[in-house]
Amino acid sequence: MKLLVSILGLAALTQAHMELTWPYAFRSKFNPNVPESLKDYSMTSPLLGSGSNYPCKGYHVDFNKPEGKSTVTWQAGGTYNFTLSGSATHEGGSCQVSLSYDQAKTWKVVHSWIGSCPLTPSWTFTLPNDTPAGDALFAWTWFNKIGNREMYMNCAHVTILGRSGFDLDERSPSDPYSSRPAQFVANVNNGCGTLEGKDVLFPNPGPDTELKSLGTAPPTGSCSAGKKRARPLAV
């Protein structure tokens, strides 16, 4: 009986990682637009190691459907937050949030966290001043520090408004949206991996980056997420 309880406890732990709760993700149980028949109650699970459901666990196909309509409107240059829930943080790791305007063919990184992500439920980022207006895919990606080498990814439909006058704090014009790096992708059968026990040091984290790590390591293998150097990291 004790062995059975241990096995069941381990199974529960492996299914209870982390998931995006705001903005509402595609197929999420938290998304009021998703009918019960389409809800994924294993949203906390990582992407398949084969890479067959990258990006967005394949759920970005809902983008133009009623169950995938936008549930939040942001403005270029504004500061916003996303929230996470779950019980297995794997001692943190490194995360990114990115935007795509071409149905997930390409992604631009808005903010990177190297270490300590996702140890708290709420995270703040600021959009570049010239973030394009329109409907976009928002992605949260996570590379866990401890445990199997995995990539976690949840996506949401968001609406971006153009910057209006001077109602928002000015940001440096040297950090335009167009120059942002591509989303880092690893552990999904793409030849790029991360080391267990270390917070992955993104090859190009972008200009908005926070470093809160006791130990980092670069990715392993052949990783194509840019070689451009970022400005000094904020600790």
TrEMBL record:
Residues 1-16 form the signal peptide. Gene3D superfamilies: 2.70.50.70. Residues 226-235 have a biased composition (Basic residues). Keywords: Signal. Residues 203-235 are annotated as: Disordered. It comes from the Eukaryota. PANTHER family: PROTEIN, PUTATIVE (AFU_ORTHOLOGUE AFUA_6G10930)-RELATED. This is Extracellular protein. It comes from Trichoderma gamsii.
